[in-house]
């Protein structure tokens, strides 16, 4: 399965900002996504109002936001964050993930980086 990660227009990717404690969990999620797709993860839709739908994977204190491209069926990761104290997805995290999804759809050459 093809996986793409959000990259800023300046060329920075999401993995460089992740703390050392969280990085092994994120890499485990990415490896699982590459091998089996999303079928081995508990997946929750975050925003059904936009197309394609934005989803969230939660594992060991980490949240990974992604959408599936309807044309090539690739997984596109928009945002990675550590869980906060609350169980609900924070609105700031959701807004950031939605904005990045729109950027990835509008300018894939700039904002999509293969893993």
Give an overview of the whole structure.
With 115 residues, this protein is α+β, with helices and mostly antiparallel strands. It has one domain: RelE-like (YaeB-like fold, 2-Layer Sandwich). 30% of the residues lie in helices and 29% in strands. The protein is built from 3 helices and 6 strands. A 6-stranded mixed beta sheet has the order 2-3-4-5-1-6. A hairpin with a 6-residue loop joins strand 4 and strand 5 (75-82). The radius of gyration is 13 Å and the shape is globular. It starts with a strand and ends with a strand.
Secondary structure layout:
Elements (H helix, E strand, L loop, with lengths): L2 E4 L16 H14 L6 E5 L6 E6 L2 E7 L6 E8 L8 H16 L1 H4 E3 L1
Parallel strand pairs: 1-5
Antiparallel strand pairs: 1-6, 2-3, 3-4, 4-5
Number of domains: 1
Per CATH, the superfamily is RelE-like
Give the terminus-to-terminus CA distance.
11 Å
- Give the beta-strand count: 6
Q: How are the strands of the largest sheet arranged?
A: 2-3-4-5-1-6
Quaternary state of the chains: single chain
Q: Which bin fits the share of residues in helices? A: 25-40%
Q: Number of helical segments?
A: 3
Strand content: 25-35%
Unreliably modeled segments: none
Per CATH, what is the topology? YaeB-like fold
């Amino acid at each position: 399965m093809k996986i793409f990660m959000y990259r800023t227009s300046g060329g920075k990717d999401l993995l460089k900002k992740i703390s050392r404690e969280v990085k092994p969990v994120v890499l485990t999620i990415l490896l699982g996504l590459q091998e089996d797709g999303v079928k081995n993860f508990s997946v929750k839709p975050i925003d059904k109002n936009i197309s394609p739908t934005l989803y969230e994977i939660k594992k060991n204190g980490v949240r990974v936001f992604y959408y599936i491209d309807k044309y090539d069926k690739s997984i596109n990761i928009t945002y990675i964050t550590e869980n906060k104290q609350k169980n609900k997805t924070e609105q700031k995290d959701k807004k950031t993930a939605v904005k990045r999804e729109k950027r990835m759809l509008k300018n894939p050459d700039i904002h999509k980086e293969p893993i």
